[in-house]
Amino acid sequence: MSLKEISRNKAFGGQVIKYEHHSNELDCDIKFNVYLPKEADSAPVPAIYFLSGLTCNEDNFIQKSGALVEAAKHGIALIAPDTSPRGVSIQGDSDSWDFGTGAGFYVDATEPSWAKHYRMYSYVVHELPALINKSLPIDGSKVSIMGHSMGGHGALTIFLKNSANYQSVSAFSPIANPINCQWGQKAFTGYLGKNQETWKEYDTVELLKKFNGKVNALVDVGTSDNFLENQLNIDTLKDTVGSLGKSSEWTIRYQPGYDHSYFFISTFIADHIIHHAKALKQ
Amino acid sequence: MSLKEISRNKAFGGQVIKYEHHSNELDCDIKFNVYLPKEADSAPVPAIYFLSGLTCNEDNFIQKSGALVEAAKHGIALIAPDTSPRGVSIQGDSDSWDFGTGAGFYVDATEPSWAKHYRMYSYVVHELPALINKSLPIDGSKVSIMGHSMGGHGALTIFLKNSANYQSVSAFSPIANPINCQWGQKAFTGYLGKNQETWKEYDTVELLKKFNGKVNALVDVGTSDNFLENQLNIDTLKDTVGSLGKSSEWTIRYQPGYDHSYFFISTFIADHIIHHAKALKQ
Fold first, then answer.
1. Distance in Å, alpha carbon of A193 to nearest chain B alpha carbon
2. Is A268:A255 a contact under the CB 8 Å cutoff?
3. Fold for domain A4-280?
4. N or C: which end of chain A has fewer CB within 10 A?
5. What digits encode the pLDDT tens for the residues A241-282?
6. Where is the signal peptide (chains A, B) (predicted)?
């Protein structure tokens, strides 16, 4: 396991570096982008992982979110993984934009066709951080996680299942209750099979019901998001948080007139970086 | 001439709107993006045109520059045109990335094959502002212009030829002396023919020698820009400015370690917006 540097661009005093490496979990070569602020030249820095949404790869967040300026201010690294295995050929992996390539859903697949490669959960939780902490000037004890849409689902579920690993969590427009929406049902049927009990291990609302730790979460969603009504189930998340008496641990904001795009993300990304910076610098 | 709205996304309290319209100058349908800050809801606002570089279209700047946050702070609109006619079929227009489609070079072509459609100079200087000032809440008396690479060349030459129309100018990595670099020589030979006297009308260094007005220009270029040595001729621009005794009117900055990419632009875009905001609000 070693990192091959694909490109490097100076930005805000630091460096955006694209790496490629062989992933054992995904059984393929895969890329990610990292933004290292200038502080990383002299000492390991805290980091925030950003998990992207359907159809995205490692580039969208780094190029379009406007996050770098705020990360540079706080001396925090950003890590943007890809969203699925690449270059593997599995029947059906390119038939639709919401399943297969670009749509790994941050689960470890158990269905036979997908189980060999589609292990984005273990890749993001274990393999990639181990590689990064060994190879780059990142302080592995000061790490947070966030994401958008499918990646918001990824960030929230990964946090709830591994809260000791992350100082804070946030999400833009997360698929908050995938077992009860079409995107999630399609993905989980394909990757995990028909036993819906196994799906609950990757559902924010279900995980929250049995979570005992403390959460410090920020969630933003636009009221003009085309997917708000049928896919995201933010109301269900908010109701669950409320009924569990956990409202003080969750800031869930409905942003009037904003949609599902990176224009929405870029408008509120500074708030999210600041949210994580507070937790990472405690 | 009317505007067809293609998409609209809320961002930083304002709106990014993509329009399509028929251009008489270009004799084709063409798109542009505009960012209208929330102040445009109640009164016309100042605007900055951004001219993009080779291979770009109306999206790159709006999606990748990070300019919107700073434009929103100052209540300034951003206008991002395309870089060439689209959907026209001219022999040779797709043979190379630095000529033809995506590479209009902000000239009015005179060579017979190109003269009908490749009139990006008149489109950007006359047709598009007339359409925008008539149709959108833009104060046409408070307009500035900037650009990147080929678009930096466009911004500087258009400013020098029409300085009464613009309050200020700036450029990232401009092709500052195109008659003396391969990109410019290829484009000008193709669009303007072999008489090099006609080329000088689209060359910043040459225009500067006969310019009598006052300039307030900001130019940034990265010292690790792959095109700095052979294509941009920033040293020639700087020397010309100096020999004309105009150094006080030009801020030309060599940014150590930065390259030609949008990561470079995003790092310094706030400085450019502030440069224009000062001029636009006088």
1. 37
2. yes
3. Rossmann fold (3.40.50)
4. C
5. 999 999 999 999 999 999 999 999 999 999 999 999 999 987
6. none
β-partners of residue B82 are none
> Rounded distance, CA B127 to CA B171, Å?
22
Cα angle at A182 between A177 and A183, to 5 degrees?
A: 75
- Cβ distance A11 to B263 less than 8 Å, yes or no, reads yes
Q: Which residues of B touch A261 (CB under 8 A)?
A: 9
> What is the value of ipTM here, to two decimals?
0.95
* SS3 state at A234: helix
The residue of chain B with its CA nearest to that of A8 is B259
Residues contacting B64, CB < 8 A, separation 6+ = A63, A64, B262, B265, B266
Distance (Å) from the alpha carbon of A226 to chain B's nearest alpha carbon: 12
The three-state secondary structure class of A258 is: coil
Q: Where are the domains of chain B?
A: 4-280
Element (H, E) at A46: strand A45-51
Catalytic residue among A74, A148, A260, A272: A260
Q: Cβ(A199)–Cβ(A171) under 8 Å?
A: no
Per-residue pLDDT tens digits for B124-157: 999 999 999 999 999 999 999 999 999 999 999 9
Distance between CA atoms of residues A268 and B271, nearest Å: 21
Which structure tokens are listed for B190? 């193709």
CB contact under 8 A, A10 and B262: no
Mutation target vs B (from A6, A7, A10, A258; most B CBs, 10 A cutoff): A10
Smallest Cβ–Cβ distance between A10 and the set B10, B68, B258 belongs to B258
| 84-123 of B, contacting A, C-beta below 8 A | none
Distance from the A267 Cα atom to the nearest Cα atom in chain B, whole angstroms: 5
